[in-house]
Amino acid sequence: MTPTGRQEETATNTPVGETLAVAERLIVAPTTGVFCRSGKHGAMHPGDVVIRGDTIGDLRSLGVSTPVRSPFDGFLVAILASEGERLRPGQPVAWLRVR
Predict the structure, then answer these.
(1) DSSP result, 43-97
(2) What mean pLDDT do residues 1-30 have?
């Protein structure tokens, strides 16, 4: 004990490890449906700049079309869902590298 009555921090009390900063994000399906790449403004391709809110494609189910929108800004690395693939909520649709 130190004279003030407090223990000094030692190396065993210091946090150890690395900070993980992932610069990549996944855009996921918001609902169930069949994926269609061509969104409102045409199909996106790897390398395209994606702005938050951009439509990556649509999910079609029972005559209703639901847009798949990006919640992130970044660069499109790849579309992970295939044209015509049936997706469930939370299933990955696209991969982004954030800026």
Answers:
(1) ---TT-EE-TT-EEEEEEETTEEEEEE-SS-EEEEEE-SPTT-EE-TT-EEEEEE
(2) 71
Where do the domains of the chain lie, and which CATH numbers do they carry?
A: 24-98 (2.40.50.100)
Token pair listed for 77: 């690395």
The predicted-structure confidence for 36-68, as pLDDT tens digits, reads as follows 987 555 788 899 999 999 999 999 999 999 999
CA distance 59 to 51: 19
CA angle (93, 98, 99) in 5-degree steps: 150
* Residue owning tokens 């990955």: 92
Tokens of 94: 């696209």
pLDDT of residue 85: 97
